[in-house]
Specification:
The structure holds 2 protein chains of 2 kinds. By secondary structure, chain A is of the alpha+beta class. Helix content of chain A is 29%, strand content 23%. Chain A has 17 helices and 25 strands. In chain A, strand 17 and strand 18 form a beta hairpin. In chain A, helix 16 packs antiparallel against helix 17. The longest helix of chain A is centred in the first third of the chain and has 21 residues. About 2% of the residues of chain A have low confidence. Chain B is mainly alpha-helical. Chain B has a domain of 214 residues: MetI-like fold, CATH 1.10.3720. Helix content of chain B is 77%, strand content 1%. Chain B is globular. The chains are: A alpha+beta, B mainly alpha. Chains A and B meet through strand 1, strand 10, helix 8, helix 14 and strand 22 of A and helix 2, strand 1, helix 6, helix 9 and helix 10 of B.
Chain lengths: 559, 321
């Protein structure tokens, strides 16, 4: 039998061991107390804070923290039907019998930051502004299939669609109601510049406390939010005009996060034990698209690049894998086609035009490009085989790819001239079609139908609306159209796959790379699983490790 | 005298008008406009951009836009910033004090350090210490200021953590006296990065002027009267040797303002330089025009102040006036 004193000693020893073990263990997100101040260094600042006018990711990030939607796409990123969608202002929803409308019931506890209840009219007003002619915002595509929004009573919102589609709820999730008790007094044409737009009253988990455009924006937690109190007390979005200064702020501990770490900063950031790199797949992909129209007259086909064999030969001359390794190391992968891996993981085994310089030489010879000038550039009928590449200055990755490809093209007797322009110069040349090769990139969304605009033939909206290189293939269009019509991901997948393969075989572009995104986050932040498509949506769930709190975490909240 | 002053003010106003008009035209001749697409923005459509252009009058000829701009400016309306979505006057009002603080501090450091070091170098006969300091100033003169700023950011700020890397203050930092010290702590590196290259030029000018004055007759006369060396330096030599430095000072405001563009970006300093560069990148026409107007006014006023200082230091000029 154990003596009481010894038993007590053993129990206390075990207790202290448990206590010290629990202190050593990393605290988990859910059990960690709320509070604290998070400073997020960002490359750009929002120009609009209201959800009806957002134009950029920065706008969207702030608007989604300040305003709640009716429903939100879930972490699984399903856009078909309503699987995985999560409740926000709407506590429930149901389709009407004809599948042409969704009836939402608003959460009875949902309220604006000024205490007024959220009512159905607020959603109607948001839709009216989103569709309105005074609104240059970028959500018009999502609103296209929504015919009208009605408010039969204060708690019911009915969204009517123009046609049956599996994406109706996804489209409706882009309606973020606005407070009509404030905005009714403002004409729609003046809404963008109104005092409310500068200091919005929202319905989201955070409210605006302070803002200096271009410099910083402070949000504070809404303690009595209808979905529960968000974790951090305060979020300060602080703009850094250069990536160097933004990264330096995180490495020195002055900021808690730099939203997107360029590959060249990754090795340096990895040396800092206080900084953790969270990697996620990108929704973007980069490509070098061949122009199918004459750069001097876009009504005519391109004199050279209309030849499929020439485009394929040029593609064969490029060692995409090596180029990606040279520029990015392990921080990117070669592009797969007109899509991002994260949206189509099953399509990673599509057949690609192989890297084969001998075959490229043979094809170019067979096309009559046999003679060479003094510089070793192929010539046909006195004309050198020369192309102009349009490259955005802002993308270091694409600039590097263009330079590497220039060398590889030269090896097969092709002269590539590179024109680098800032965003506006790039946009101006893009609009006028003055390029042979466009070093472009698309940021996609979980909705795969955007391929209609980016790689579909030019036609009635949305077909080809963003297809700046005028690629056209009726067979691919037909496959895309079928994919868009299908009601489930499984039914749509084979049609998307067929469209992708046709576009790849056509050599519409050389598929450059997909970067693995790296987010530099201070180790004191505890974060739930990262959401690649919109990381900021989990901010209310973030916690500050109690053992690593800083003086700023205890600063009083701005009233 | 009064006529002379009025003429100078008229010249200055004409200069400002010319600078603003040139920038107004040049920025519109650059490719793109505020409504061209952001990079890889799939939501952009030409129709959307066209609607916005019409709404802001950018579809009209440049001369008509200029007339509108001038009439609005005279009414005190500098327009609306597209990139910041706020009135241009508000954007400038928040950035100007930050740049003012940075530039004035940098110039203060530059002239205080430059004049002291230069006077000492020129007054002293050749010595190893003088030669060493001369080489340091030569190095500072030769290295571009952005490189000095990068070194400052990487070394004292990031590697050694002596100074903060960004901003004007610690977010949610101390208030009162400690808050003031915190702001000075944030100001130190950007001001040094901006001021040291100017200090190097001032030091060399001052040293050269001092060497000329050192052996001048009036200095020898002062010495022969038995005055102490320090008194001769302060009362007789330095004041005369300041003239070339003060002439140079008038030009340094514009140098410091252009240097601030780089330093502000590297240290995330929320001032005019950063504002104007961002505005040019975004083709934010009203903000560029407003920024250039304010910068030109500051330069003209700074030059006038330097002229006054020169007149104060030069009895000959005062007498002529």
């Amino acid at each position: 039998m154990m003596r009481p004193l010894r038993a007590a000693c053993l129990v206390s020893l075990l207790a202290s061991l448990c206590a010290s073990l629990s202190a050593c263990a990393k605290p988990d997100v859910e059990s960690t107390p709320t509070g604290g101040t998070i400073i997020i260094a960002t490359a750009g600042d929002a120009s609009h804070l209201i959800p009806t006018h957002w134009e950029s990711t920065s706008d969207r990030m702030l608007a989604e923290l300040l305003f709640d939607p009716l429903v939100e796409i879930g972490p699984e990123r399903n856009v078909f039907g309503d699987a995985g969608f999560v409740r926000r202002l709407a506590s429930q929803w149901a389709w009407t019998a004809d599948s042409l409308a969704i009836r939402f019931t608003l959460d009875s506890t949902a309220a604006w930051h000024d205490g007024q209840p959220v009512v159905a009219r607020d959603a109607v007003a948001a839709f009216r502004v989103l569709k309105g002619r005074f609104n240059p915002g970028s959500l018009k595509t999502e609103m296209k299939e929504i015919d009208s929004v009605a408010a039969p009573d204060d708690r019911t919102v009915v969204v009517h669609f123009s046609r049956k589609s599996p994406y109706q709820l996804y489209f409706a999730s882009h309606i973020l109601p606005i407070p009509t008790h404030i905005t009714d007094a403002i004409a729609d044409s003046l809404l963008e510049r109104s005092a409310w737009a500068q200091r919005p009253v929202g319905s989201g988990p955070y409210r605006l406390a302070r803002r200096e455009p271009g410099v910083e924006t402070e949000l504070v937690a809404v303690a009595d939010h209808y979905r529960g109190r968000p974790g951090p007390d305060r979020i300060l979005f602080s703009t850094s005009p250069t990536a160097e200064s933004g990264v330096a702020r995180v490495l020195s501990g002055e900021a808690d996060m730099w939203e997107l770490l360029a590959p060249q900063f990754v090795p340096e950031a990895e040396k800092y034990p206080d900084v953790r790199l969270i990697r996620s797949e990108s929704f973007g992909y980069a490509f070098a698209a061949f122009n199918f129209r004459d750069p001097n007259d876009s009504s005519r086909p391109h004199p050279l690049l209309r030849e499929r064999a020439l485009r394929r030969a040029l593609t064969m001359a490029i060692d995409r894998e090596r180029n990606v390794r040279t520029r990015f190391g392990s921080e990117a992968r070669a592009g797969l086609g007109p899509f991002a891996r994260i949206n189509s993981p099953a399509d990673s085994d599509l057949t690609h035009i192989p890297y084969d310089t001998i075959a490229a030489d043979r094809v170019l010879d067979s096309l009559g490009w046999t003679a060479r000038n003094r510089d070793g550039i192929r010539v046909r009928n006195g004309r050198p085989l020369m192309f102009t590449a349009l490259v955005p200055e802002a993308s270091g990755g694409r600039r590097a790819m263009a330079e590497l490809m220039q060398e590889q093209f030269r090896n097969v007797g092709v002269d590539l001239r590179i024109v680098i322009g800032d965003d506006k110069v790039f946009g101006s040349r893009l609009k006028s079609g003055r390029f042979d090769l466009l070093f472009g990139g698309w940021g996609t969304t979980p909705l795969r139908t955007s391929i209609q605009g980016t790689w579909g033939s030019r036609g009635p909206d949305p077909w080809g609306a963003q297809n700046q290189a005028y690629y056209a293939n009726a067979e691919a269009d037909s496959a895309i159209a079928r994919a868009v019509r299908e009601l489930t991901p499984a039914e749509a997948a084979p049609h998307y796959r067929r469209a992708y393969q046709l576009i790849i075989d056509d050599a519409a572009a050389i598929w450059l790379y997909e970067v693995t995104e790296a987010h530099a986050v201070h180790a004191r932040l505890l974060t739930p699983p990262w959401r690649a498509e919109a990381w900021w949506r989990t901010i209310p769930l973030w916690r500050v490790d109690p053992a690593k709190r800083l003086p700023r975490d205890a600063a009083p909240v701005t009233p | 005298m009064r006529g002379n002053q009025l003429r100078r003010i008229g010249d200055a106003a004409l200069l400002v008008a010319l600078v603003v008009a040139t920038c107004f035209i040049l920025i519109r001749l650059a490719p793109g406009d505020p409504f061209y697409p952001r990079l890889d923005d799939p939501a952009w459509t030409p129709e959307r951009a066209a609607t916005q252009r019409v709404a802001f009058g950018y579809d009209k000829p440049i001369r008509i836009q200029f007339v509108y701009y001038v009439s609005r400016t005279f009414r005190g309306d500098l327009g609306w910033s597209h990139s910041r979505n706020q009135p241009v006057a508000e954007a400038l009002a928040s950035a100007l004090p930050a740049t003012g603080l940075l530039v004035v501090t940098a110039l203060g450091i530059a002239f205080a350090v430059g004049i002291l070091v230069g006077a000492w170098q020129g007054w002293r006969r050749d010595s190893p210490l003088v030669r060493a300091s001369d080489r340091v100033s030569l190095v500072l003169l030769s290295v571009p200021e952005f490189l000095i700023a990068v070194f400052a950011l990487m070394g004292p700020a990031l590697a050694w953590r002596w100074f903060p890397t960004a901003g004007m203050r610690t977010p949610y930092g101390p208030e009162g006296v400690l808050g003031l010290l915190d702001r000075l702590h944030h100001l130190a590196l950007p001001a040094l990065a901006l001021g040291l290259p100017i200090a190097a030029v001032v030091a060399r000018l001052q040293a050269s002027a001092m060497r000329e004055v050192r052996d001048a007759e009036f200095v020898r006369a002062a010495r022969s009267r038995g005055l102490l060396d320090g008194l001769v330096l302060r009362r007789h030599a330095l004041r005369n040797a300041l003239i070339p430095v003060l002439t140079y000072a008038g030009l340094q405001l514009s140098t410091a303002l252009s240097g601030a563009v780089i330093v502000e970006r590297l240290f995330s300093w929320p001032g005019m330089g950063r504002l104007i560069v961002d505005a040019v990148g975004a083709r934010d026409y009203p903000l560029v025009a407003g920024g250039v107007l304010v910068a030109a006014l500051c330069t003209v006023v700074g030059t006038m102040l330097a002229d006054l200082a020169l007149r104060w230091a030069t009895p000959r000029l005062r007498a002529r006036a």
